[in-house]
Amino acid sequence: MVEGRGDAEVVRRALGDVEVLWTDGFGLTADKLAYIAGAAAEGGVIVCTDPDHAGETIRAKLERRIPNLRHVYLPQREARGRRGDIGWENASVAAVRAAFARSRTEAETEAEAESGAPLSPGLNATDLLELGLTGVPAARLRRQTIGRALGLGECNAKQFLRRAARFHLTRRQAEEALTKEWGMHG
Fold first, then answer.
1. In terms of pLDDT, which residue wins out, 186 or 5?
2. Looking at the domain assignment, is residue 33 inside a domain?
3. I need a labelling partner for 93 at 20 to 30 A (CA). Which of 16, 50, 148, 167 fits?
4. Which residue segment(s) compose the domain that 42 sits in?
5. What CA–CA distance (Å, rounded) separates 19 from 10?
6. What are residue 163's DSSP bridge partners?
7. In this structure, are 11 and 69 located in the same domain?
8. Are 83 and 159 members of one domain?
């Protein structure tokens, strides 16, 4: 599920002959939502909205109406066109493939939780502060770096927490990503 025809074309170039639906921006009619819900029930829907405010608004609308969507987040730097516009249509084939490789669903994270492995508590606002993901000059860059590594995309601290909760990201996972990407944590 993408926003427009150009986005669909780059996804097909990257992934081959796959069915791609598009929203036509904010054009999510009741009929289109019903069709998407049916597709989700049959085989799943992967949401690939642009990494901008409009894309987040569309993603939120889909999430409210359709359960268990798979989410793919493309970093803004990978989606920025020559004229400064942001969209999947500007991404390289390699960037699209990398974004899809990092995608997850809430069901997958629930299955991990039910696997018997002990779970750490989810990431919280205090963790963000203690890990330098908010409240310090390099916080935005750190969030962007580990957000890309963990498939959460680039976002502000509030969105980061919301996405981390959606995928049951733990403090330990955030620490491991910081260590891998920055050589440290906290």
1. 5
2. yes
3. 167
4. 5-101
5. 12
6. none
7. yes
8. no
